[in-house]
Give the backbone structure.
Amino acid sequence: MGNTLCIVAGAGGPEGSRCNGIYSESGQHKGKPLFVHENGEARIYFDRYWKMNNEDCTGGWVYGVNNAQGPYPPSIWRNDGYTGSKATPCPTLTLLNRNGDAAKQGNASGTGGFTGLSPDTIWYCGKKKNQCKCGNCDGVCGPGNGCPCEDCYALIKVFIWFLLDLVFVYEEYKHSDAEDLAKGVSACGYRNISSRGGVYV
């Protein structure tokens, strides 16, 4: 899904402050991007919900948001599931779009413009780029809802096509005959994901 960068800031306490810094996307964990700190230690990962740990481990965390299950980690973090007392205040997270603009998660009100998505699953840079495609926005990318600019939309576009490919493979699997299944043509389907998904990366 590319090499998305994110910045964590504002984490406090002896445990939490170790999470501050720049992270880069490094593979996946439980079907969603895994982010690794530039120091090689801290991790941001998904396991039932988004979590952040101050060490190279996906079995524990100091920050978590138990209702955050989107394609990328949330902008505002909490201590959900953490029982310690050395990680306050909680941090904020900013994604960098492909143009290097800082993007933050939208809010839960309004619409996601042409995407048809809830705005809290979209990231916006807040810049006026006049790239509205629904005809109802003011040309600003967000910052809370509406159409994202092309650079911010690229953050979620690959994930959307990945999901569509999974649906495509599942439908193909359902309609495959016994001979095709015996050959493993559609039962696997990964060839379809790689060939179709590669167009949009």
Remarks:
- Helices lie at 13-16, 150-174, 178-183, 185-188, 190-197.
- The CA atoms of residues 13 and 194 lie 43 Å apart.
